[in-house]
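From the methods appendix. Each design record in this collection lists the tokenized structure first, followed by the designed amino acid sequence. Records were kept in a plain field format so they could be parsed without special tools. The example shown here is representative of the layout used throughout.

RECORD:
FOLD TOKENS (257 positions):
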């Protein structure tokens, strides 16, 4: 095993680390600058009180499956892109950086309970992702879950707007619960390519809809469940009227399997 517990006196760690390194253990390192551990493909474990990670700090560490997230507060773009992480819980960050986990093909579960912002492509083509816990995310930028082809259901309690390609090509997605959404505005945002997807809208007003956000005919047509008292308003609303037959009251919502 090639393990480094200390790396001299250089706490920025540069890209001088031996590429055979498979574990990094340190009780002092708190900040990792841009690209510093990037492309160390033998690396499996990082255990240090890291609070800040720079751009692509651990990207392309394809076998990295353990990271001590307990002190992490600041993460820059692409930090864990194409890493080997499979189960992530980060309690102390308020925003999820763009490209943070994109192409993490082993990532199955993610819980970031205090984040309110999710950046572009954050989980782009995380093809094994199944469990998502983002209870406070109110703003999601573009392509966040695009290509998450094993995601079957998702609840985003605080999200206000559905953006460009948010769920594009999530081909197994069967149930999308969006309690606070009032705007479905991103092009192709609900083009899941799933043949029997349910979308649940719970806000007390009719959400605005951009027609290019959804399929309006064909096998990928979605079913929408909305508050009972708003069903007729939805069916006659701009752009919603084209899929009026697909709009139903929440009281008829099927139980989850």
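DESIGN:
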């Amino acid at each position: 095993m090639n393990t480094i517990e200390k790396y001299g006196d250089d706490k920025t760690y540069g890209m001088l680390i031996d590429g055979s390194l498979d574990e990094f253990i340190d009780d002092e390192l708190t900040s990792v600058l841009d690209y510093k551990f990037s492309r160390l493909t033998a690396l499996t474990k990082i255990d240090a009180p890291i609070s800040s990670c720079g751009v692509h700090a651990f990207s392309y560490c394809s076998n990295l499956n353990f990271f001590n997230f307990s002190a992490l507060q600041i993460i820059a773009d692409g930090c864990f892109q194409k890493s080997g992480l499979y189960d992530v819980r980060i309690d102390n960050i308020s925003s999820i950086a763009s490209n943070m986990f994109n192409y993490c093909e082993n990532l199955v579960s993610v819980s970031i309970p205090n984040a309110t912002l999710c950046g572009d492509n954050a989980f782009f083509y995380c093809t094994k992702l199944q469990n998502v816990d983002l209870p406070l995310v109110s703003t999601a930028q573009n392509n966040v879950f695009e290509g998450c082809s094993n995601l079957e259901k998702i609840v985003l309690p605080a999200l206000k707007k559905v953006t460009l390609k948010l769920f594009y090509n999530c081909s197994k997605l069967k149930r999308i619960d969006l309690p606070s959404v009032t705007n479905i505005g991103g092009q192709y945002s609900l083009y899941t390519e799933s043949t029997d997807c349910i979308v649940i809208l719970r806000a007390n007003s009719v959400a605005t809809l951009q027609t290019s956000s959804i399929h309006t005919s064909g096998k990928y047509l979605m079913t929408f469940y909305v508050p009972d008292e708003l069903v007729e308003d939805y069916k006659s609303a701009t752009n919603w009227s084209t899929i009026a037959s697909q709009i139903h009251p929440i009281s008829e919502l099927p139980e989850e399997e």
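APPENDIX NOTE: The CA atoms of residues 207 and 248 lie 14 Å apart.
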